């Protein structure tokens, strides 16, 4: 490294510093900083690398009259699960007098660059991601604009640089399956969420561990993955319950999936819980009102959302977090949809 290079690396970087080092115009660097998509990928990568090397951070001056907002981003916004998250977020933002801007990714777990461009132009206090995640390059773009990010639940393992609030999904799967095994069920199916989502795999891993500690093998044909929806629960439920060796119990990865399983059971003339035990996950308010009332794993969605929102507001106001990862406790809530099997497996 030459002396001139050392001098450049120790002074405060400016857009001109980055442009000169990479050999591009000031406009090109500005476009990368603003998340614009009209920059060639190779050029963008070089600019991003230089920005990171110089630890460039744009100083953000907020107008005192501007309305303070946070962006709440869902992979999908179509269930009671999302409603509970919104209520938890709103409980904190309403007290703080901060507005919410909603986005949903249509089931995708990676927001698009076009979405990021809109966020960078709007410049909110921060971004809350729900069951979706940014690429490292996108995260760095937010960071350079001093827009903090917090994730509620995760679709893949996050780095320590990304504050995350979730719940102990592995323990939830373990508690649900132990309950069914203790009731005497030996042929238990598991319908979890999308296989590429970490919480889905964690719940299935807890399901498998409960079998391992009981010395009971898991039939791979009884472990299914799908969307956290009533349709997925119904579809997998029909396939599982039409088998000649059908399971006597089903652990569903969400209450919505469990409702689909209950519909499949009714359609096939099976009584719950006499012929089939069903456990859900989330403990949505509707779980107490459906018939039979649903045994489920309580995932403290409102507390998760409220904790994540407070973390985000603290970061936006310059505070340092004591931890970057919080996992809240999951608990089994036993109601009417589980019972000992009518015939022992």
Biggest beta sheet attributes: 6 strands, parallel
Number of discrete helical segments: 12
What amount of the residues lies in strands?
A: 15-25%
Q: Which spans have pLDDT < 50 for at least 5 consecutive residues? A: 1-11, 61-65
Number of strands: 12
Strands of the widest sheet, in order across it, are 2-1-3-4-5-11
Structural class call reads alpha/beta
The CATH superfamily of the largest domain is Response regulator
User: For the record, what CATH class of the largest domain applies?
Assistant: Alpha Beta
Kindly report the average pLDDT value. Answer: 87
Care to give the gist of this entry?
With 345 residues, this protein is of the alpha/beta class. Helices cover 42% and strands 16% of the residues. It has 3 domains: 3-53, lambda repressor-like DNA-binding domains (434 Repressor (Amino-terminal Domain), Orthogonal Bundle); 69-167 and 301-328, Response regulator (Rossmann fold, 3-Layer(aba) Sandwich); 169-300, Rossmann fold (3-Layer(aba) Sandwich).
């Amino acid at each position: 490294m030459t002396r001139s290079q050392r001098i450049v690396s120790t002074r405060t970087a400016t857009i001109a510093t980055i442009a000169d080092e990479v050999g591009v115009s000031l406009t090109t660097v500005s476009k990368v900083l603003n998340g614009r998509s009209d920059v060639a990928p190779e050029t963008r990568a070089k600019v991003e690398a230089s920005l990171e090397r110089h630890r460039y951070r744009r100083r953000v001056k907020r107008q005192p009259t501007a309305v303070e907002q946070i962006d709440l981003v869902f992979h999908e916004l179509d269930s009671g699960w999302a409603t509970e998250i919104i209520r938890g977020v709103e409980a904190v933002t309403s007290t703080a007098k901060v507005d919410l801007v909603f986005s949903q990714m249509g089931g995708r777990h990676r927001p698009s660059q076009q979405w990021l461009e809109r966020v960078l132009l709007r410049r909110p206090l921060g971004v809350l991601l729900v069951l979706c995640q940014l690429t490292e390059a996108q995260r760095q773009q937010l960071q350079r604009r001093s827009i903090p990010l917090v994730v509620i639940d995760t679709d893949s393992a996050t780095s320590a640089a990304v504050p995350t609030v979730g719940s102990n999904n592995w323990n939830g799967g373990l508690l649900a399956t132990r309950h069914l095994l203790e009731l005497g069920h030996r042929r238990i199916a598991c319908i979890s969420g999308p296989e590429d989502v970490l919480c889905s795999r964690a719940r299935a891993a807890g399901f498998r561990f409960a079998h391992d500690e009981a010395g009971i093998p898991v039939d791979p044909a009884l472990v299914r993955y799908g969307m956290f929806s009533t349709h997925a629960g119904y579809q997998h439920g029909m396939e599982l319950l039409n088998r000649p060796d059908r399971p006597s119990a089903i652990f569903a990865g969400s209450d919505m999936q469990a409702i689909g399983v209950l519909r499949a059971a009714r359609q096939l003339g099976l009584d719950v819980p006499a012929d089939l035990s069903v456990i859900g996950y989330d403990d949505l308010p509707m779980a107490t009102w459906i018939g039979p009332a649903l045994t489920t794993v309580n995932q403290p969605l409102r507390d998760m959302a409220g904790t994540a929102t407070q973390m985000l507001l603290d970061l936006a106001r310059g505070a340092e977090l004591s931890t970057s990862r919080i996992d809240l406790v999951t608990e089994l809530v036993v109601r009417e949809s589980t019972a000992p099997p009518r015939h022992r497996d």
